[in-house]
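Sorry, any thoughts here?
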Amino acid sequence: MSTRYISGSAVALVTPFRQDGSIDFDALRRLVQFHLEAGTDIIITCGTTGESPTLSGDEQAEIIRTVKDEAAGKIMVAAGAGTNDTRHAVELAKNAERAGAAALLSVAPYYNKPSQEGMYQHYRHVAEAVSVPIIIYNVPGRTGCNITAATILRLARDFENIAAVKEASENISQISELLEERPAHFSVLTGEDSLILPFMAMGGDGAISVAANQIPQQIKQLIEAVKRNDLDEARSINRRYRKLLKLNFIESNPVPVKYALARMGMIEEHYRLPLVPLSDESKKIIDQELKTLGLT
């Protein structure tokens, strides 16, 4: 690849469920239409926000196929396909590619805390198993380990289909190193909604956003405002939605954003254990902010 392929506003899509725990494919199709209308650049299904740990391989494939069918070629459809067992991560990646995912989001191996060489070997096996672009997902707050900039850059240089990183470390020094030393084909995206403005100002390529589930048009406008150096507009958007960006993590993601989407009439409010509904106190806080923003 000679140019960066993955950029712009990507939504970390929720997985809507019915009361019996099954996937609500009608609601899933409605969400795709919502993002088509909003101009979202990439839909990423089956990630952490999509409750990926609770999805079977068959469900992962069916979600990808459904979203791709509804998108009808109008938007890139990528998919989460990672876990902390390399053999299983390879299986998930192959399954997602077969189902039609145009790119894969592969989370850093969590809990078992591999060395940096272990990280490299994990992603090497995934990269060699598929042909589609891979987005490394570095999220130390959830995984308990950090993939260093040196390891990410080594992977990007060694494997052409390792095409991007979703960097959610909040480590400005690490982000700077990635942006300054990356190869030409490699994209650096933020996974932290509250950092979109400064991240883009540093030269980032976009965001994989939770808030884009609720406000996809505004997240895209924020990204594009910084890209065209209209910082007044970017600050205005960021100021208006700053509180919502943080409230989406008032309890474990994706519980707050799914509650908000239910209040907005987009989905039913159901989760798979071990996730449970929001506390009444958190619901009141989110209800007030949604009302303030005119979202309900």
Remarks:
- The longest helix spans residues 231-247.
- The longest strand covers residues 162-167.
- Residues 108 and 290 are 33 Å apart (CA to CA).
